Amino acid sequence: ETGVTQSPTHLIKTRGQQVTLRCSSQSGHNTVSWYQQALGQGPQFIFQYYREEENGRGNFPPRFSGLQFPNYSSELNVNALELDDSALYLCASSPTGGQGINTIYFGEGSWLTVV
Amino acid sequence: QKEVEQDPGPLSVPEGAIVSLNCTYSNSAFQYFMWYRQYSRKGPELLMYTYSSGNKEDGRFTAQVDKSSKYISLFIRDSQPSDSATYLCAMSYTNAGKSTFGDGTTLTVKP
Predict the structure, then answer these.
(1) Dist. CA A107–CA A98, nearest whole Å
(2) Facing residues of B66 across strands?
(3) Helices H, strands E: what count in chain A?
(4) From the candidates B25, B27, B99, which should be mutated to test the interface with A, based on the most A CB atoms within 10 A?
(5) Does the beta carbon of A78 lie under 8 angstroms from any beta carbon of chain B?
(6) What DSSP string runs through B39-71?
(7) Interval A44-85: pLDDT, tens
(8) Torsion angles phi and psi, residue A101, rounded to 5
(9) Distance (Å) from the C-alpha of residue B80 to the closest C-alpha of chain A?
(10) Which residues of B63-96 are buried (b: 16+ CB within 10 A; e: fewer)?
């Protein structure tokens, strides 16, 4: 039990649609990172939020956007879905200030299929 | 070319075998080196991490980092069927996340 909850667990969307994925972190975990894991690949860093501000971004287009809320929850939004967006989306949360690699916890992920 | 390359596997070994999992990387700025275990495409679970070069041991698991060669390894001694999973190496500049992962090696330990 990591204390990181993601929803929905599975969803199917049509190309061109928009999707919102949610992550709920432990209390006090005000750093959250989102990753995309395509089939047969490792997780790829999308972006990180710290205290509701974007704090670093990987090689993903602007149609991937995020929000972080004061209640330790966050969202990943993807606009204009493409078939290649089909993947497992993972969020990882940690306490303030980089207290250590072993304080970073992953959720179980949201499976997105784009048809 | 990817920043982190991981031996792809899959790897199948008998119970009790010693397993060696390996990754190479190209970015010398990486300071933290992690090994995660992932079951059935669920969230990765941290096994071990090392800061900079050196070895670290935790029970049956040993992590090695050689920064001069840009090469990291995870050794599993006395492997068990419960060790069957996908193992992901990951690296980062800081201890605050933003990790770069390898593509994973799927290990099967047969009873």
Answers:
(1) 18
(2) B71
(3) 0, 11
(4) B99
(5) no
(6) STT---EEEEEEESSEEEEETTEEEEEETTTTE
(7) 999 999 989 999 999 999 999 999 999 889 999 999 999 999
(8) -55, -35
(9) 22
(10) bbbeeeebebbbbbeebeeebbbbbbbbbbeebb
